[in-house]
Amino acid sequence: MTDLDALDLAALNSATKYPPIPTYHEIDRGILLDKVQAFSGDVVLTEKVDGTNARIVVFPDGDYAIGSREDLLHAKGDRIVNPVHGIVPALCSLADRLAAPAAGLRVYFFEVYGDKITKASEQYTGSRQVGFRLFDVAAVDSSVLELPAHAISSWREHGGQQFLNENELALMAADNGVELTPRVGTVAADQLPTGLAAMQEFLATRLPGTRVALDDGAGGRPEGIVLRSTDRSVIAKARAEDYARTMRRLAGR
C-alpha cells in the first residue's frame, strides 16, 4: 500500500485539484460579455450538474485518497478522515474498485449531488437521495509531487494534468461501471450560438430539464451545459443563471 504518510500531502492535494473551467461567454463581476470561448471541430455537450466537486486519486497499487475541490478528505484505511459535504460516504465503496494506473496517479473527478449538498439539491431529489457522476479523468506524473508548491500550482493551471479525450473517458467509465454526466449532444463548433440571447435559448432547448434526477420528487431544473472539444483541449461552461442574470441587467439599462 502507498505510504501516504511519506508523501507531501499538500503537493498531492495541489497536483490533483481540478482546474477552473472558463465560461463560454467571458464573465466580469457576474455579468456575461460578448466574447466567446473559441472552439473548432465537433463540440460535445454535457449536463453541468449542480453538486460538489470531488476526486478520487488512485495509485498503481490500488491505494487511494478521496478529496473535495479544495482538500483531501480520506485515504484508504481511514488514514485521513473528514466527512465534509458527504463526499466520502458517497464515494468510498466506489474508490475500492476503481481501476489503478500502471504508473503515476490517476484522478477521477466526480460531481456529488442531492441530499443537502448544495442549495440546488431539491432540483435532483425530493427525498434526500445522493448521487454522483464522473465528468473527467486525468493522469498525473508522480514526479510532479517533487516540485515546489508554486511550480505545482502553475503546472496545474497551465494544463499540466493530462485529461482523457471523449472516447477514452467513455471507455474508462464503462470499464469501471460508473455513469458519466449525461451527454446532451454533439454540434459543430460553427453551429454554436455566439449571442447572449441565442445561447440562453440554446440552453433551454438543448436541456429543458435535468437528466440526473434521483427520484420523482426532484424539481428538475438543470444548471447548464459544459462544452468540450472531443480531444478535451478546449472546455467551457454555460450556466442558465448567468444568462438569466445578464439578460435582466441588459433589460434594465
Q: What are the key terms here?
A:
single chain; six-stranded antiparallel sheet; 6 helices; 253 residues; four-stranded antiparallel sheet
Write a brief caption for the model.
With 253 residues, the chain is of the alpha+beta class. It has helices spanning 9-15, 87-95, 149-157, 166-176, 196-206, 240-251; strands spanning 25-28, 31-36, 42-48, 52-58, 64-68, 72-75, 105-114, 130-140, 162-163, 183-188, 224-229, 235-239.
Task: Describe the protein in words.
The chain has 253 residues and is an alpha+beta fold. It is 23% helix and 29% strand. The protein is built from six helices and twelve strands. The protein has helices spanning 9-15, 87-95, 149-157, 166-176, 196-206, 240-251; strands spanning 25-28, 31-36, 42-48, 52-58, 64-68, 72-75, 105-114, 130-140, 162-163, 183-188, 224-229, 235-239. The strands form three sheets. The chain has a six-stranded antiparallel beta sheet, sandwiched between helices. A hairpin with a 3-residue loop joins strand 5 and strand 6 (72-75). Helix 1 packs parallel to helix 3 (149-157) and helix 5 packs antiparallel against helix 6. The chain is globular, with a radius of gyration of 19 Å. It starts with 8 loop residues before the first helix and ends with a helix. The mean pLDDT is 93.
What order do the SSEs take from the amino end to the carboxyl end, as H and E? HEEEEEEHEEHEHEHEEH
Strand tally is: 12
For the largest beta-sheet, the strand count, sense and barrel status come to:
6 strands, antiparallel
Average predicted confidence as pLDDT: 93
Helicity level: 10-25%
- What order do the strands of the largest sheet run in, or round the barrel if closed? 6-5-4-7-8-9
- What is the general shape? globular
* DSSP summary: helix tally: 6
